[in-house]
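Q&A FORM
Asked by: J.P.
Topic: structure of DNA protecting protein DprA

PROVIDED:
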Amino acid sequence: MERRELAAWLRLQLTPGLGSAAQRRLLAALGTPEQILAAPPAAHRSVLTPAVAAALAQEPPGLAELLDRSWNWLQASPRRQLLSLGDARYPASLLQTADPPPLLYAEGQLDWLHVPALAIVGSRRPTAQGRDTARELAHDLAEAGLCIVSGLALGIDGAAHEGALQGGGGTIAVLGTGLDRLYPPTHRALGLRIAEQGLLLSEYPPGTPPLPAHFPRRNRIIAGLSQGCLVVEAALQSGSLITARLAAEAGREVFAVPGSIHAAQSRGCHALLREGAKLVETALDVLEELHPTRPRPPRGPAARATPLVEPASPAPQLPPTLEAVLAAMGHDPVSLDALQARGGWPTGELNALLLELELAGAVARLPGSLFQRRAQG
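REPLIED BY: S.T.
REPLY: Here is the structure written out as tokens.
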């Protein structure tokens, strides 16, 4: 994209009242952004309200600064690209949605935009078991040929990206900030890895801070890029349910992982299942509906459901006393008092056993003084 074309796009985006839908109407009626700006005011008024048409006639404040910042960001690396609606590289799946963004800033490997994709989303505060489940499913599905799409958020998003990278596949992180403002800061290193092995995307120009309104809007891009949306742990008010709803409205498949009836993080998934989402226990449950162009036999959890691949190596054997605690714990979050009632251990002894299990990675400590068995335990 030439600098003057970028300037025209940015002027459209900075014009007050000129949202993405109005920009698409202008493009359809008048042509390229440069042609739009060169058109007479009467042409603008034929498409826009008088107030927005008048705003378009004025150069918006901050345009020169934003143009310099965006142009310098693009020129700093050949891996950085800007895709407009008319670009042949713009993802076709996103064009088919109700509100495709006029511009997409990208850093990484654009080829991942044209690989069958699955969104994996969920709670920012998952249980340890939920985090493990997201990572394992993403690993197996990426290994089977699906690109994993998520939002780089804490919790399930980050675990899904990690799993996809560990599975040797691709992952796309859709940000609610500019690509120079990786958010949250604790995922900066993960974001840089995704830029190298996968793809970072945002509709927001460089320098855009993490404004709360941006994150719900980026969910439509996550849903639109994907053939399906898998929710792993979500409360009833979770933003992940917005992504799932957008996916369903776009005609995509919706999947959900069931959880404990006692866990608030499972209630959103259970609501989706009641509404017709497909229940997922292994990667094969997803692969039965979505058919990657480069299928490979999945490993990990899916291997336990099919004889086509070797079973996963068994977990290291724990001492009988620790196995007894795990057996009493089950797979739901449980309090110390409940464990004592089930097994009769003195408080000091049980605390010591739980600490050993934590150090072995078999048990996680949850908020509210609860404990939960992890998948590998």
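FOLLOW-UP: The first strand starts at residue 80 and ends at 84.
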